[in-house]
Amino acid sequence: MAKIKKGDLVVVIAGRDRGQQGRVLEVHTETDRVVVEGVQRVTKHIKPGTRRDNQQGGLVTVEAPIHISNVMLVDPETKQGTRVGYRTEEVERDGVKREVRVRVAKRSGKDV
Predict the structure, then answer these.
(1) How many CA atoms lie within 13 A of 30 on its CB side?
(2) DSSP character at residue 68
(3) Where does 1-74 sit in CATH, by number?
(4) Are 82 and 11 in contact (CB under 8 A)?
(5) Using CA atoms, how far apart are residues 103 and 112, in angstroms rounded to an integer?
(6) Widest CA span of the chain, in angstroms?
(7) Domain coordinates in residue numbering, the chain
(8) Block means of pLDDT (10 residues each) for the chain, length 112 residues?
(9) Using CA atoms, how far apart are residues 90 and 6, in angstroms rounded to an integer?
């Protein structure tokens, strides 16, 4: 199970884009990779007419997947990279008690 989810703000900790921050656009759990906005940009050759938004084709710059071990969640309080832990809480809804797992930043102890 990945501790990084779509929409999270992450910082790159390894590779050519080290230190850059961005939002997670996609998570590929089967290959343990994430696509981060503005990070790991590569040039792709597109044939004319293969996509609706690009009728003329040519070179397009897109974000490529990066391994999940090379990114770290940004702590909402300190704005630095942090590890992720879990805490279980008991929640009551419609008279039914359930245990819910909540993601917690290890650096500050705040909920993510």
Answers:
(1) 0
(2) G
(3) 2.30.30.30
(4) no
(5) 6
(6) 59
(7) 1-74, 76-112
(8) 88 94 95 95 84 74 94 92 93 89 91 87
(9) 25
